[in-house]
Design a protein that fits this description.
Layout lengths: L5 E5 L8 H13 L2 E8 L12 H22 L7 E7 L3 H11 L4 E5 L5 H6 L3 H8 L4 E4 L9 E5 L7 H21 L2 E8 L4 H6 L5 H22 L7 E5 L2 H12 L3 E5 L6 H5 L3 H8 L3 E5 L10
């Protein structure tokens, strides 16, 4: 059962529409949660005004914050439900969002997202990528996609794992998918990919039989999926096990099902490896044309102090 009491919706003033607010409203109407619209602003020119004292620069910043708060309050006045407004001055939006989410005890962060240029993302990591790596609160990344009744909710699981942390995350993702299916009168699907035959082994080991290997790996994943689905009473017809990379398999399953929501676990990798490789979740998200709910494993600690 989803029991949200506080929803944090991230406002992006450069957008003509605010999908995050629309989705937050929909969740609030079904859960009775309150909504806070959160916006960060920053203008470097205010930091460069050397003719003014620190107190005067701070007063100028606060005046801008108040002006934007009044503007946002006016913009949100036409919505049906009451929405609290919070505006902060910060040149790192993701840090402000995470700190506010923790301080306000938000149950979920809702943010609109869009496709990123892959090369540019290596150099300038977008705010939503920071959030899925570092935010301990579940992050719902919203795209322009409806949530109709009887829609399809996908939990992206890794049933072939022997790692206990991943196994627990599989259970959590499946439970959350069932909760959302109940909330939205939808249907739960489980999606799992498995790797194909490593090419170097097929070339370097003459006696290696790639067909036998592939069949063995596939059967292992099918058996694990059947066991997992039985524990959660998910029909086998709603279980999808396909060969390939998750960033290709999961988006294809989502397109085939015209999914409304994909729920995915993120390990929150940071540092150089994340910059050069990127998380699997990030690659999946960029290929999806529906909402994505990113969930951290139990015990995750944010690096944001």
């Amino acid at each position: 059962m989803i029991q949200y009491t506080r929803i944090l919706a991230v406002i992006e003033p450069e957008r003509d529409t605010q999908p995050a607010i629309s989705r937050a409203q929909e969740l609030a109407s079904k859960t009775g949660a309150s909504i806070t619209a959160f916006m960060t602003i920053y203008d470097f020119s205010y930091e460069m005004t050397t003719m003014l004292s620190g107190e005067e620069r701070e007063a100028m910043r606060q005046a801008v914050v108040k002006e934007r708060t009044d503007w946002l309050t006016e913009q949100l006045s036409d919505y049906d439900c009451p929405i609290e407004v919070a505006v902060e001055w910060n040149n790192r939006p993701y840090e402000a969002i995470i700190k506010f989410a923790i301080a306000s005890k938000a149950d979920i962060v809702v943010k609109a997202t869009r496709s990123h240029d892959s090369l540019r993302s290596v150099i300038f990591t977008p705010t939503d990528w920071h959030l899925i790596r570092k935010c301990p609160t579940p992050v719902l990344l919203v795209k322009e996609h409806d949530w109709p009744q009887n829609g399809n909710i996908i939990a992206a699981v890794n049933v072939g794992t022997e790692d206990q942390e991943h196994a627990k995350l599989n259970d959590r993702l499946t439970t959350i998918a069932q909760d959302y299916a109940t909330l939205l009168s939808g249907h739960v699907h489980l999606a799992n990919s498995f790797p194909g035959t490593p090419l170097n082994i097929a070339i370097e080991v003459p006696e290696f039989d790639p067909d036998t290997y592939n069949a063995s790996v596939k059967n292992h994943h099918l058996q694990e999926m059947e066991s997992h689905s039985m524990r959660f009473s998910v029909p086998l017809d709603n279980c999808h096990v396909k060969e390939g990379l998750p960033e290709k398999v999961i988006p294809q399953i989502a397109r085939d099902l015209d999914a409304e929501l994909v729920i995915i676990g993120t390990v929150g990798r940071v540092g150089l490896s994340a910059a050069l490789i990127g998380n699997t979740a990030e690659h999946v998200i960029d290929e999806l044309n529906c909402d994505v709910l990113a969930i951290k494993p139990d015990g995750f600690e944010t690096p944001i102090s």
